[in-house]
Amino acid sequence: MADPTLATARDHRGEGAHAHVGEGAHAHVNKGEMFTSFDVDAFEVPSPREEVWRFTPFRRLRGLHDGSAQRTADPVIEVSGTADGVTVEAVGRDDVRLGQGGVPFDRVAAQAFSSFTDATVVTVGREVELSDPVVVSITGPGEGEVAFGHIQIRLEPFARAVVVLDEQGSGTYAENIEFVVGDSASLTVVNVHDWADDMVHVAAHHVRVGRDAVVRHFAISLGGNLVRLSPVVHYDGPGGDVELWGLYFADAGQHLEQRLLVDHSQPHCRSNVVYKGALQGDPSGDRTREAHTVWIGDVLIRPAAEGTDTFELNRNLVLTDNARADSVPNLEIETGEIVGAGHASATGRFDDEQLFYLQARGIPEEQARRLVIRGFFREVIAKIAVPEIRERLEAAIERELQISGA
């Protein structure tokens, strides 16, 4: 597989938790900071000329970017699997905890914050260790409807938990999800986008990592018409350890986009990013039926972040014609006192040598292709600590392979 051309443009947020601009000011982005605000009007309407939006098909956003998409319904959010030491609350925008994970960094996220009816806050108490996952089910508002949501997952110091965010249904939906992970706490979150074919979904994930805390974040994108996910990681103290894992499978007509930022601002922290995707478009050549994936991985190592150890990897497997994968890893280092930093990206078709090896041992070509694809995703699936989710993903990939005829 050949490495694609790597771009150097990148965007990231500053260290300040809140930022506001006056009337007529611009939400200006530069290499050292990203403007943030709860106020929708503080942001200009984005355009395809901006680096952070240049891959997104605006005509398919249904007005989420310019304010013309107004709330007509609400998502259905249900929490199950709670135990002693876990609280679930419905709160308003005036709750002081909202924003502790992160503040909206674009107009869609600000619109989502200003438009939700109630926010759901799930808190795992200090030193509570959960043996079973907490499952947060999010159901879209329905075909033709528009909804906005806000969820915050909080782990107090020394807590340990697995949280599954299971998103299904139809409609148009924008949301902010905050993960506030206290000192020495450990959170594994598995976010599954299993939307219906009509769904347009734009989400911002704000991850705040305490001293010596551990976060394992899995983003699984399978369904939907357009899905755009933007996870942002901030460290609040030394010793933070974050891994971001992703799996996506785009069919004809789908646009799946992931934009990540890991902002290393504290010493002796670690991050590892692995995202893998497969694409299968309509081989007839109809551009409206193109499968398109976008992965932008930004890592910033600030001057104070001595001892940082980081790596990011993106791999894309193109199964048919009329499929396009854009992959842009970016690494910005502002101190030389680090353990290590690197990135890698590759996009291509089947490895002929792998197919030849399997066929040479008597495995038919069709079965050999399936084995290669399963093996391609195995690294990510094997890391998921919830057996039910692993089985569900394996079944979903098998259905995708039946569509492609692999």
From TrEMBL:
Residues 122-179 form the FHA domain. One of its GO terms (biological process) is iron-sulfur cluster assembly. It holds the Pfam family SUFBD_core. InterPro entries: Fe-S_cluster_assembly_SufBD, FHA_dom, SUF_FeS_clus_asmbl_SufBD_core, SUF_FeS_clus_asmbl_SufBD_sf, SUF_FeS_clus_asmbl_SufD. Coiled coil: none annotated. Belongs to the iron-sulfur cluster assembly SufBD family. PANTHER family: PROTEIN ABCI7, CHLOROPLASTIC. This is Iron-sulfur cluster assembly protein SufD. It comes from Gordonia rhizosphera NBRC 16068.
